[in-house]
Every structure is written in structure tokens, then in C-alpha cells.
Design goal:
There is one protein chain. The protein is α/β, with parallel strands linked by helices and about 500 residues long. The protein is built from 22 helices and six strands. Helix 14 runs parallel beside helix 16 and helix 14 runs parallel beside helix 22. It is globular, with a radius of gyration of 31 Å.
Length: about 500
């Protein structure tokens, strides 16, 4: 079991979840105090030892289900033993023996007809028999999934084939008809009440449907677990975990995020901004020591007989920088600009002033959208709908946008300003006007360019990053929340 735990921890680290040696030892110690056959207890004991962020739980859960899928006395992949175990469960659950005895003397699953399996499924869901639901799930996978050893097919395909043959919509309709006619007690109703009822009220029908749906969801989960167990037995835990591995929210690429991944990013952004604000405040408060304060040191040495045991220093008071954000919001870089603006304004208290500008081929100041609102997402929505950023045709023109910025707001850049330029520098073959960045650098404290494209793509096609880079203090590849957090954390 310790070997399984070591492989499990290695997978968590490969997925991006930080697990220290101490936490690994804590997890091994926790396993001594929970019954290993209780999967739920084991999962939460390991989770309490290894997971430090709620955003990492999904990755932890996936890895756990893979590495511990074959653990426990009831889990086996051998077809004959699985069939016999399921028969015993079905008989023990009150299945009058017909569905099991009709199989003859064979392995069990091969002799059960689809009609018998459908009837067993109906009775399992009607009676909420967990043991029977587990048995039906295993029989269904063995009969309908069509799994073959060594076949490079994902679990989603096997799940689809199994559920399609079970016709769960038809089973739900049959269960609801049974509940409406009162031929059997509805979930949550007594026998006497159910047998005498001729129908259900609207509220009762909704509650009954929700109850049956929860039972069907449990069946689906059991089918997924059974498919996963068989895949692990065929391919091994490490190979399957690698194929199921998904990036953590902080490692999702802004440029290629799906709708669900964007939701995960938004969920991770708020706690990240709070943590980053606290870190910046602590960094400023406990900065480097200044020169020795001789007078203060001598005064405090009087209590120790004139020995300067506790030297005192003149701590510097670093000023808060002023942030100016100039962001391209065209095309695929819009997601990157949106999250950067959101994060910078979420920690605005750590800067003396934050001013934001967005552009495509025209440019507009959008600082006003963030003033007086507690929800940066609302401000970003207003930017997308109200900002005046189109000059001619709505295609990126960095040269024109930067020139207009310099003409209208260039005088407001000063020695306290740190300027962040956000974009991929794909200029549609327009003039770069890189002299604007050069002039900004002369007046500003720092000039940084954050590019969401991979570094290998820079200066390819219509990208002109290098023309601007020579006038910047640094050009940073910034494609994920983790990279953005690292950069903003060093900014102040």
C-alpha cells in the first residue's frame, strides 16, 4: 500500500499539486488510523493531509479514483468471480432468485438476458438497493461496454455505450408512471399512503423525480467506477492517470481555455487576489533593513549595561508604485487582458494609483468602469460593451493605439509609474511606432510587456515583439494564472 501511496503522491506532483515530504509522511501516518477498505474515509484522510487548496480537489479526486480503484476486498476484475459476487449481491438484496437462477451454471453475466438486466435495474432503482445497483453496474459494463484488453479507447466511449443500452430515460419514465398510479410507494411515502394514492401533486412529483434522479446518478457513478477499475487493470494506474490528467486552474492557458475552464479560472481569481494582496502588504511592511540607527541602538543598549545586544535600523518606507495598464482586448488575447485587469484592480489597494487603458486599433481609458464597483467582473463586462476601442476596422493596430495614448496621456507618465503593456504584438503588418514605448521608458519607473503567446511564436508572422522589447525592462511570457501571480507578486 505504501508503494501505491508513493505513486499517488508522484501523480499529484506531476499534476501540479505541491506535496512536500512532510505531507507525504503525514499521509502515510493517516493511513494507519483509517480502515483501508473504507474508500471514503481513506480519501478524506489523504485529502486532509495532501490538499491545501479547494481548486486542487478535482485533480486530487481523479488521481485517487485511479490509484485506489482496485483497493478493497470487493473489487476484482476477474469475470467469473465478478459474476458470482454480483449474483450473491442480487440474491441477498431480495431478487427472488429468478434473475440469478436463470443464468444456469455459467459465469452469471453471459446468461442474463438484456430483459432480465433491465428488470433487475428497475427493481434496484425502485427499492434504492445500493448492493443491487452496484451489481447491475458491473453486469452492464461487462455486457454492453465492449471493453477489450489493450484497446486505446477512453473511458467516455465505454460509458456512452453502456448508458445507451440501459435506456435510463425509459427507466425513469417507467418509475414515474409507477409512482403516479400508486402501484408502489413513492420515495419518502409510507406503504399505506402510497398504495391508496391515485396520483401525485406537483410538489410530490418533483420530489419523487429528484429522488429517482439521484439514484440514477449513483448508478452512473458506479458504472464510471467499474470502467475505471477495468482500465486500470488493463493499462496500469500510472498510464491511466496520465491520460486523465488535466491542468489545475492556475495552469490553464488563457489563450485556449474552454468555457468550463474559464469558469474555473474565474473561481480561482478571487482567492488568488486576496492572497496576493496580503503577500504584497507583508513584503512592503517587512522589506530590507536600512542603515544602522546609532542613536536608537545606544538608547536601547542601556538596559543591557551598554552592550548593543539588539541593533536598531532605519527601516525604509518604500512608496507604492503607480500602475498604468495598456491592454489589447482583440481576439484571442481578450481573455488574458480580462484576467489581468481583474487581478490588478482586485489588489489596487497595494498601489498608489491604477489606471487602465484598452485598445484594438483605437484606445480608451476604462479606469472609470472600476470606480465605485466591488465586482471587477462587472467592470470588465462594461469594458467589452462600452469602451471606444475601434478606430477603422477593428483589427489590431498597436502603432496607432500607442501613438494616440502618447498624444493624449503621455504627459501623465512620471517616475513613479510602472507601465504594463499586455498583448501578443501581432500588428497586422501596420507600422509599429515603437518610438512611443521608448519615450514611455524614458519617463516611467519601469516598462513591462506581458505576452500570452508561447515564446516560440514570438516574431513569427505579423508578431513584432522584438521591436518593442528593446525599449522594455522585461518581456514576460504570461499565459496562466500562476505566471501572472508570480509577475504581479514581484511588481510591488
Amino acid at each position: 500500500m505504501l508503494d501505491v501511496l508513493s505513486g499517488f503522491v508522484s501523480e499529484l506532483r506531476a499534476a501540479g499539486i505541491p506535496v512536500s515530504l512532510t505531507e507525504h509522511l503525514d499521509a502515510a501516518e493517516a493511513m494507519r488510523h483509517v480502515p483501508l477498505e473504507d474508500r471514503e474515509a481513506l480519501k478524506f484522510a489523504l485529502g486532509a493531509s495532501l490538499v491545501k487548496s479547494s481548486s486542487h480537489w478535482h485533480a486530487f479526486d481523479t488521481a485517487f479514483e485511479v490509484y485506489f480503484s482496485l483497493r478493497g476486498p470487493e473489487y476484482t476484475i476477474d469475470e467469473n468471480s465478478a459474476g458470482r459476487a454480483n449474483e450473491d449481491k442480487a440474491k441477498a438484496s431480495g431478487d427472488n432468485g429468478n434473475q440469478g437462477s436463470g443464468r444456469g451454471g455459467g459465469s452469471g453475466q453471459d446468461a442474463m438476458t438484456p430483459e432480465e438486466l433491465a428488470e433487475l435495474l428497475y427493481k434496484a432503482l425502485l427499492g434504492s438497493n445500493d448492493s443491487m445497483i452496484t451489481a447491475v453496474a458491473r453486469h452492464a459494463v461487462a455486457r454492453f461496454a465492449g471493453m477489450e484488453a489493450g484497446r486505446p479507447v477512453g473511458g467516455t466511449y465505454y460509458l456512452y455505450r453502456t448508458l445507451r443500452n440501459l435506456d435510463l430515460d425509459g427507466v425513469m419514465q417507467r418509475l414515474m408512471e409507477q409512482a403516479r398510479t400508486g402501484a408502489a410507494p413513492a420515495p419518502g411515502k409510507g406503504d399505506a399512503e402510497g398504495s391508496g394514492s391515485s396520483g401525485l401533486t406537483g410538489l410530490e412529483e418533483r420530489l419523487v423525480r429528484d429522488e429517482y434522479q439521484s439514484r440514477i446518478d449513483k448508478l452512473r457513478q458506479e458504472i464510471e467506477n467499474e470502467i475505471r477499475r477495468r482500465l486500470v487493470a488493463d493499462r496500469g494506474s500510472e498510464a491511466l492517470a496520465k491520460s486523465l490528467r488535466k491542468p489545475l486552474p492556475e495552469d490553464i492557458d488563457f489563450m485556449h481555455a474552454t468555457r468550463d475552464e474559464l469558469v474555473a479560472l474565474r473561481g480561482a481569481l478571487q482567492p488568488l487576489s486576496r492572497k496576493l494582496a496580503v503577500r504584497l502588504a507583508r513584503k512592503r511592511r517587512h522589506g530590507r533593513k536600512g542603515p544602522l540607527d546609532f542613536r536608537n541602538t545606544v538608547r536601547h543598549s542601556l538596559s543591557t549595561g551598554g552592550v548593543p545586544v539588539d541593533p536598531r535600523f532605519k527601516y525604509p518606507r518604500p512608496s507604492k508604485p503607480e500602475i498604468v495598464v495598456i491592454a489589447d482586448i482583440s481576439g484571442s488575447v481578450a481573455s488574458f487582458a480580462r484576467f489581468t485587469l481583474h487581478l490588478v484592480h482586485a489588489i489596487a489597494t497595494q498601489f498608489s494609483k491604477v489606471r487602465s487603458f484598452v485598445f484594438i486599433d483605437g484606445i480608451d481609458e476604462v479606469t472609470r468602469f472600476f470606480e465605485g464597483t466591488d465586482d471587477p467582473a462587472e467592470a470588465v463586462h462594461r469594458i467589452n460593451t462600452e469602451a471606444d476601442v475601434v478606430w477603422v476596422d477593428g483589427h489590431s493596430d498597436y502603432g496607432h493605439a500607442l501613438t494616440v495614448f502618447w498624444e493624449r496621456w503621455g504627459e501623465e507618465i512620471n517616475a513613479k509609474s510602472s507601465v504594463l503593456l499586455l498583448g501578443d504584438a501581432r500588428n497586422n503588418y501596420h507600422a509599429s511606432h515603437s518610438w512611443v514605448v521608448k519615450e514611455i521608458q524614458k519617463k516611467a519607473r519601469h516598462v513591462y510587456w506581458l505576452n500570452p503567446e508561447p515564446r516560440a511564436y514570438w516574431d513569427s508572422g505579423d508578431s513584432i515583439v522584438s521591436e518593442y522589447a528593446i525599449h522594455c525592462d522585461d518581456v514576460v511570457e504570461c499565459r496562466t494564472l500562476r505566471q501572472l501571480e508570480r509577475f504581479v507578486g514581484e511588481l510591488a
